Amino acid sequence: MTGALSRLRIVEIAGIGPTPFAAMWFADHGAQVVRIARPGSPQIFPLSRDVLDRGRDWLELDLKSAQGRDLARDLILRADAVIEGMRPGVMERLGLGPEDFSANPRLVYGRMTGWGQSGPLAHTAGHDLTYLAITGALAAIGPRNHPVPPLNLIGDFAAGSMYLVAGMLAAILAARETGKGQVVDAAITDGVAHLMAMITGLRVNGLWQVERQANLLDGGAPYYTCYRCACGGFLAVGAIEPQFWAELIRRLGLAGVDLPDRADPANWVALREILAARIASRSRDDWAAELEGTDACAAPVLTMDEAPHHPHNRARGVHIGNDPRPAPLLSRNPGQPGEGRQLTVGQARNLWR
């Protein structure tokens, strides 16, 4: 089946984290993506196969050499878009910056960085955690006594990769209408700030406390948090609405108990202790059998090894072997993960002609 983006041609300058994830997403949905990798470039993780590299052909080019730059330029001149994640100015010094491709006026140039192309930190080193640190998001996540890194999901992949994808798709649509490409300046700090729109809106309206675990959605509310079970596993509870809370309480066997008013945050500690004691009396899987499939809004907290075997994930085909299926699921062009091949210089020269 042809992918939804099968007519899209993208050159990816190999990087780490958000750039390969964005390129993988495009390739999953059928785009013709070619990755240019630096010869002998080191890996952060010693992987025999990196899932983020799936679905696209690749070739090794030394962009510091005239021959390597010439071939890269030739490919980009025939492409619809570029993905790169170098520090600002690096591609320009190589003669491969956005202004070097006037002969391809429809080119969309996707630039993925942590700090953005401008600003006082633009040329400094950083990683997901340090980008999160200046956005207000990191300070809001974790227990009361210290913030906790939320893996690199929020910065690298949500605020980074997916904002790059969205920006590039918008620019590609515009280029097809106007004949003019543009630069997409995707900064993780910008993306996180945008993702925080609802939370900062609550804060501005006096409905969010700065301290952690004091709010509705940060683990402070006893009806939106995780509880330890008898087996040592955890149960996630998200019974925000009154009807879901009532169903949860009934199924926990607490319907006849005179519970503190959950609407008053002053009662949250006492209410949490009651729920914690009850949930700790049975195993995670016992509670899952009791609560899943109901409107109690509760679910077992599964490990990465367990998640592919959950009946809901299996029914939807969320995983293909050890890999995630392309997402989202399109009805006519659902996407298909694939593998790439290493191109020779000759094959690369003849590509897209």
UniProtKB/TrEMBL annotation:
Keywords: Transferase. Residues 310-353 are annotated as: Disordered. It comes from the Bacteria. SUPFAM superfamilies: CoA-transferase family III (CaiB/BaiF). The keyword Transferase applies. It holds the Pfam family CoA_transf_3. One of its GO terms (molecular function) is transferase activity. PANTHER family: ALPHA-METHYLACYL-COA RACEMASE, SUCCINYL-COA--D-CITRAMALATE COA-TRANSFERASE. This is CoA transferase. It comes from Paracoccus kondratievae.
